[in-house]
Amino acid sequence: MQWNKIQKYLNKRKWSLLKLSKISEVSEGTLKEYKFKNTEPSFKNACKIADALNVSLDDLREKEK
């Protein structure tokens, strides 16, 4: 999952990490790890993030070249 894709949706909605955290029920600290440390979310958290953003997991994943 690429954070820049998540960030694109956050910018579009004018959401902060805190708002995404509250809606997705993924802690803000965990979201910061995904953003700043490039760690990969668990499948469960990826689903929560996608659901909160109202997008599919495919919209957030890194496409194979």
Radius of gyration from CA coordinates = 11 Å
Average the pLDDT over all residues and give the rounded result.
93
- Relative strand content: under 5%
What kind of sheet is the major sheet? none
Shape: globular
Q: Total strand count, please? A: 0
Specify the number of helices: 5
Span from first to last CA? 15 Å
Category from helices, strands and their pairing: mainly alpha
- The secondary-structure element order is HHHHH
Task: Offer a few descriptive terms.
globular; mainly alpha; 66% helix; 5 helices
What does this structure look like?
By secondary structure, the chain is mainly alpha-helical. Helix content is 66%, strand content 0%. The protein is built from five helices and no strands. It has helices spanning 3-13, 17-24, 28-36, 43-53, 57-60. Helix 2 (17-24) crosses helix 4. It starts with a helix and ends in a 5-residue tail after the last helix. The model has no long low-confidence stretch (mean pLDDT 93).
